[in-house]
Write a structure and sequence with these properties.
201 residues, Arc Repressor Mutant, subunit A, 2 domains, five-stranded parallel β-sheet, four-stranded antiparallel β-sheet, 22% strand
Amino acid sequence: MHQLKVLILGPTSFSSTLDELKPFLKFNSVNEKNSSDYDVILFHEDALKDKVDSRLVVNSDSLKVCASSKKKLSNNFDAFLELPSSLKEVNAIVENVAAKRIFSKNSSIEIKKYLLNKNEKKLSKNGNEIILTEKEIQLLELFLKNKKPISKKKILSSVWNYSSDADTHTVETHIYRLRKKINDKFSDEKFIINTKDGYSF
C-alpha cells in the first residue's frame, strides 16, 4: 500500500499537534485544502462549524475520520476517533479505515456480468464460481483497465514483467487455461476475445 495522504481539518490546536507528531505518523498529513490528492480526511468535530471545511467534508469522496470528545455524532462518517487519543490510536484508525475500503473494493469488481472477488480469488455468476490464480486475476485486471485489445507482448511485460522479445507462448497458455475454466463452468466461449490486435473482453 502506498503511504496514505491525510488531509487534516480543524482548529489550529488540533492541526498543529498532528504537525508536531508528523515524524511518528504512519501516514503523510497534508493541510492543502485546494488539492483533491488525499485518501482520508481526518477532521476535528469543530471543522463542521466552518462553512468551507464542512462543505469539503460533506462533498468529498475521500474516507472521513471524525475526531471528537463526544461519544456519538449524528453524522455518518467512515470512522470515529475519540479524543483524547494516543498516537497509536490515530495511526491505527487511519490505516484500518483505508484497509477496509481496499478490502471492500477487492470484494466485488464487476467484469461483464461476472463478479471478481480478489480477496477470495473467485469469479462468480448466477451462483456458480471458479477459483482463479494470481496471474489469472492480473490478466483480468489488465483487460478491465484497457478498452482496446492488448498484444501478447504488452501482456507479457505487464503481467510477467518479461521483455517484449520473450516467448509469447506463456500468454497463450494462460489465456487458453482461463478460457477453458470459464467455458467449462459458465459455457461462455466469448469471455476473452482474440483479434489480430490482441486479446480483450
